[in-house]
Write a structure and sequence with these properties.
Length: about 180
Amino acid sequence: MAGYQYELPAPHSLSSGALGKVFRGWRVAGNTTFQSGFPINPSDSGFRSGTCWEFTFYGCPDNPNQVAAIVKTDPRAVNLAFPGQSLYFNKSAFARAANGTFGNAGRDSFHGPGLNFTNLAVMKDVYIKEQMRFELRLETFNTFNHVNFNLPNGNVNSGNFGRITSDTGPRLVQLAGKFYF
């Protein structure tokens, strides 16, 4: 993640008088994040081991059996590895554990899709008196409208196991004003 802010310089000839109020006080700020995905914890909410009580506050889902190597796909690309399905990983790599046993899948054994977003703001300070100013802001979140997918469903009992069913949302733009005194 990188955060940045830059105050735009005003030409000396335009920095005083009425023109100074227009050309002085402009800033650009933002942050950019490139991050690997969050861990995925494959689980079996069927409580097959018999050691968990399903009504506990935190729950206690068991691990499924991992029977093959995990193959991940790019959720932005056409999924040729799994035709007709929008899977992030091959769900055939996991099987439900037999009743009374624990599965062998490791906790957080692989990661979901990464994050890539930039937030930017353009700000203008309008000075009224020495101690008083008004700040106008135009802010964008996910400025370049890059799709950032949420984690796929990791529960082998779910019909959506292995599927990504949502994202973090589109670009948002907001205007704001703040008065400092």
